[in-house]
Design a protein that fits this description.
By secondary structure, the chain is of the alpha/beta class. The chain has a single domain, classed as Thiamin diphosphate (ThDP)-binding fold, Pyr/PP domains (Rossmann fold, 3-Layer(aba) Sandwich). It has 11 helices and 8 strands. An 8-stranded mixed beta sheet has the order 2-1-3-4-6-5-8-7, sandwiched between helices. The longest helix has 15 residues. The radius of gyration is 19 Å and the shape is globular. The chain binds iron/sulfur cluster (SF4). Iron/sulfur cluster binds next to loops. Keywords: Iron, Iron-sulfur, Magnesium, Metal-binding, Oxidoreductase, Thiamine pyrophosphate. Its cofactor is [4Fe-4S] cluster; Mg(2+); thiamine diphosphate. GO terms for molecular function: iron-sulfur cluster binding; metal ion binding; oxidoreductase activity, acting on the aldehyde or oxo group of donors, iron-sulfur protein as acceptor.
Length: 280
C-alpha cells in the first residue's frame, strides 16, 4: 500500500509484527486515509520501530508515553488520523497509567498493542501479559503472578471500543483494525503478534488452536453485559470486537479542541523557551 515505507524492517523473520503492521496499513488505506493525513506514534520495543516502516507522519515516542503524545497530536490537529502503536510491555507496564487515562478520555484515535507476551527487544524477559508460569531468563520459575487482562483493564477504565485480533489472520485482523479506526472515539485493539525468537509458548500454533472468533459465536459487541462476560473470561482467547459503545461521545465532540497549531500566537514558542530557561 501507499503506507509502506522504503525501509526494510529489522524484525526477526516470522515475527508477528509484520502481519500486524500489514493489516494496519491496509485498514488505513481501506478507510480512505492517505499517508499525508496520517500520524503514527510508536512506543519503545520491537513494535516501536513501526513508525519507521510505515510511510506517514511518525514519531518514535518515549517508553510507555506514546498515548499522551498521540493525544497531543490529535488535539493539536483533529483532522489527522492518529494511530498509536506499541507492545505489551510498553502499554501495560510502564505505560499502564497513560493507558487508563487515554481510554477514559476517549479521544478519537486508534491504539494497536502488538501483544507477544514478552519483552522481545531486550531479549526475552517476562512482560505484564506473560503467563504466571512462563520461564524466562529473569523469571526462572515464571513471574508467579497472574497476567494483566488488557481487555478488562480497558473496560474498567470506561473504554468505548475494545477488540482483539491475531496478526496471522490477515483478513480478520485488517477488518478489526478498520472497525477501530471507524469508531468515533478511542479504538483499542490488542493484537496477538507472536515473538518467534523468545516466546515458545504463545506461538502461532497456540493461537490458531485456541482462538475463538466472536463473529462465529454471534456475539453482539453493543450488548454491555455480553461484552463484560467475554472480557472477564480470562481463560479464553477471543478474537473480534468485544465491546463497542456507539452512544459514547469522543473527547473532541464534547470539548473545544480548536487548537490548530497554526493559530498559536506569534512569539509563543519563544515565550515557552524563556520559561524553560528560567526553570533550569
Ligand atoms: Fe519480533 Fe521477537 Fe524478534 Fe522482536 S525479538 S523482532 S518481537 S520475533
Amino acid at each position: 500500500t501507499d503506507f509502506k515505507s522504503d525501509k526494510q524492517p529489522t524484525w526477526c523473520p516470522g515475527c508477528g509484527d509484520f502481519g500486524t503492521m500489514n493489516g494496519m496499513m491496509k485498514a488505513l488505506a481501506e478507510t480512505g486515509n492517505s499517508p499525508d493525513d496520517t500520524f503514527v506514534v510508536a512506543g519503545i520495543g520491537c513494535s516501536g520501530k513501526i513508525g519507521t516502516y510505515m510511510h506517514a507522519y511518525a514519531l518514535h515516542g518515549v517508553h510507555g508515553r506514546a498515548l499522551p503524545v498521540g493525544t497531543g497530536v490529535k488535539l493539536a490537529n483533529p483532522d489527522l488520523e492518529v494511530m498509536v502503536a506499541g507492545g505489551d510491555g510498553d502499554g501495560y507496564s510502564i505505560g499502564a497509567g497513560h493507558f487508563v487515562h487515554a481510554v477514559r478520555r476517549n479521544v478519537d484515535m486508534t491504539y494497536v498493542v502488538m501483544d507477544n507476551r514478552i519483552y522481545g527487544l531486550t531479549k526475552g524477559q517476562a512482560s505484564p501479559t506473560s503467563r504466571e508460569d512462563f520461564e524466562t531468563s529473569t523469571t526462572p520459575d515464571g513471574p508467579q503472578q497472574p497476567p494483566v487482562n488488557p481487555l478488562a483493564l480497558a473496560f474498567a477504565s470506561g473504554a468505548s471500543f475494545i477488540a482483539q485480533s491475531f496478526s496471522s489472520d490477515a483478513l480478520r485482523h485488517q477488518e478489526i483494525v478498520q472497525k477501530a479506526i471507524e469508531h468515533d472515539g478511542f479504538g483499542f485493539v490488542n493484537v496477538f503478534s507472536p515473538c518467534v525468537t523468545f516466546n515458545d509458548v504463545d506461538t502461532y500454533d497456540y493461537f490458531r488452536d485456541s482462538l475463538v472468533d466472536l463473529q462465529d459465536e454471534g456475539h453482539d459487541p453493543t450488548d454491555r453485559d455480553a461484552a463484560k462476560q467475554k472480557i472477564l473470561e480470562a481463560d479464553k482467547e477471543y478474537m473480534g470486537v468485544l465491546w463497542q459503545d456507539e452512544t459514547a461521545s469522543s473527547y473532541e465532540d464534547t470539548h473545544d479542541v480548536d487548537t490548530n497549531m497554526s493559530e498559536i500566537p506569534d512569539g509563543a514558542p519563544e515565550d515557552g523557551m524563556d520559561l524553560v530557561r528560567e526553570f533550569y
